[in-house]
Amino acid sequence: MAGKVSGAVAAWRERAAPLVARADASLPGRLWRRLLEMEFVERSIALAAKAFVSLLPLLIVVAAFVPEVPRRGLVDSLISRFGLSGEALEYVQRAFASPDEIRASTSILGLVLTVLFAVSFTTATQGALRDKSRGTLWLAGSVVFLTSVGSVAKVLTGLPGTLATLVLGVAGSTALWWWSAHTFLRGHVRWRPLLPTALLVGVGSAAYAGAASIWMPKVLEGNVEQFGFVGVGMSFVTWFVGFGFLLVASAALGPCLVEGDGALASWLRAPDGVVLTPGAPPALPGPATAPSLLDFLRRSEPVDPDL
After folding, report:
1. By C-alpha distance, which of 96, 56, 80, 89 is closest to 220?
2. What is the sign of the dihedral through the CA atoms of 68, 69, 74 and 75?
3. Distance of alpha carbon 155 from its chain centroid, rounded?
4. Which distant-in-sequence residues (6+ apart) come within 8 Å of 58 by Cβ?
5. pLDDT score at 307
6. Given this model, what pLDDT does residue 85 score?
7. What one-character DSSP code corresponds to residue 1?
8. Which residue(s) pair with 276 in the sheet?
9. What single string gives the DSSP state of each residue in 121-188?
10. Cβ proximity of 36 and 248 under 8 Å
11. How high is the mean pLDDT of the chain?
């Protein structure tokens, strides 16, 4: 009986192999293979942890040193993107509501260390950013972007304000992450091949922020009720993990689109079909054995229990 089952499985694998090979060569197959190569789960969690322990403290400190109008814009932008409400909203507003106390308790050394620790977020995003000035510039651009979006929402109300905030959010996020990808790759990749990743993050982050306004309040309410203030931090980590998945998936899908054979891939590689900038070092080779759907079919035959 076991021999018949083993033969049937082997026959099924043989018949399915061509279909699975075509699936591997398709865009979803290439994307899945690249995600596995990037260890996307571990990378997303690492980004979330870095963002939580480095970016949030920086935003609180920065908000204490800027004028009232941009400070309110920054706070409102964070509230909107995290979908905060209820008791969790009160906790966050309380954290940003005492700029005088924060300025009094923050020394120059503490401020410098906060910025340097926040720059470490770029090392998790890029892997190894040797030029710390680029990381600092990226942080400044991110703060300006969040402040600008929140300020527009404060100035314009109603439908015009909503539309302006949405357009500015998508366009600004796309531009920010387009420049970020170019910066984190040290300018070795041309601008056009990086555009899909930027668009995916720009549109995806707007959609993610909109969805957060639906599910985050429930998560926050449950965590705050059970863990108090600590529950706010746990909810933030959950949000950052989801955003980390968005960043990693966008970073993986962009090259998959560039490597394709269609008109879009040709345009992204135009005009000479070269992705790297002149003088850039050659791309590193891929793994010797890239994971694929065919791995399932190439497993060893099941062991006959009668042997």
Report:
1. 89
2. positive
3. 29
4. 114, 115, 117, 118, 139
5. 43
6. 66
7. -
8. 189
9. HHHHHHS----HHHHHHHHHHHHHHHHHHHHHHHHS-HHHHHHHHHHHHHHHHHHHHHHHHHHHTTT-
10. no
11. 75
